[in-house]
Amino acid sequence: MENKELIRLALEAREMAYVPYSNYMVGAALLTKQGRVYKGCNIENAAYTPTNCAERTAFFKAVSEGEREFAAIAIVGGYEGAPKDYAYPCGVCRQVMMEFCNPAEFRIITAVSEEQYVERTLAELLPEGFGPDNL
Ligand code: THU
């Protein structure tokens, strides 16, 4: 699948963001190695800490459906309206990616639009990460 299409799906997912506290809307589209896509949005909570990021929503949906092999994730974030800046994944989400993805291969696409994006590997965003291979 083209990055452009994965970003389009992340933008679609962002529309579902439940963000009454921060108003910061994030969407993610996670591509499996077999070509399926799982979408996720951030889901906030009145107690704040139970908040789930868009990336983890997408991962947990996929893993709970039996998926274990992932190729890429597109992420878009920002306040209402078109995204203005790149929304990089938080440290907790990078660690969740580390559990299921090959850091040298897994692609993280942060986008402001279907045309404008930055692509990094997980190894670039989480150098010397700790993962299943360390145990
Ligand atoms: N958020 C994400 O969904 N993904 C990230 O990687 C960074 C932060 C969400 C959590 C919270 O709902 C809002 O953005 C502001 O932190």
Topology at a glance:
Blueprint: H1 3-14, E1 25-32, E2 37-41, H2 54-64, E3 70-78, H3 91-100, E4 107-111, E5 117-121, H4 122-125
Parallel strand pairs: 3-4
Antiparallel strand pairs: 1-2, 1-3, 4-5
The chain binds tetrahydrodeoxyuridine.
Tetrahydrodeoxyuridine is lined by residues 19, 22, 24, 26, 42, 44, 51, 53-55, 89-90, 93.
Quick check: average pLDDT?
Answer: 98
**Low-pLDDT runs:** none
N- and C-termini, Cα separation: 33 Å
- The percent range for helix content is 25-40%
Please name the defining characteristics of this protein.
about 140 residues; alpha+beta; 5-stranded mixed β-sheet; 4 helices; globular; binds tetrahydrodeoxyuridine
How would you describe the overall organization of this protein?
The protein is an alpha+beta fold and 135 residues long. Helix content is 27%, strand content 24%. The protein has helices spanning 3-14, 54-64, 91-100, 122-125, and strands spanning 25-32, 37-41, 70-78, 107-111, 117-121. The chain has a five-stranded mixed β-sheet. The longest helix has 12 residues, at 3-14. The chain is globular. Bound molecules: tetrahydrodeoxyuridine. Residues 19, 22, 24, 26, 42, 44, 51, 53-55, 89-90, 93 line the site of tetrahydrodeoxyuridine.
